[in-house]
Amino acid sequence: MMSEVEKFGKYLLLEKIAVGGMAEVYLAKSSGANGVNKFVAIKRILPQYSNNPEFITMFKEEAKVAINLSHSNIVSIYDFGMESNQFYLVMEFVEGRNLRQIINEMKK
Predict the structure, then answer these.
(1) Cα–Cα distance for residue pair 107/1, rounded to 1 Å
(2) pLDDT(8) > 90
């Protein structure tokens, strides 16, 4: 858990949700015009991999595929870019349990 809110471009990172092998995911808030805010999920490359061409290529490929998918069972991708030398992907935030939690429950 993050102890304080981190400004990341036009987003505020509120809470770290998950960390994987090459990226981390945050619950974030986008700030639009006239105080219009939206909760989103931001996935960004871990700092130690942000200069690794292989990881950057994999992350860009993931973004290329994901941004063109449109299905009610797949989160929407809103944005892809770079901030503070880290590539990031902005996705729809869906409240609830993640797939790992559900699979672990089913194993019990």
Answers:
(1) 26
(2) yes
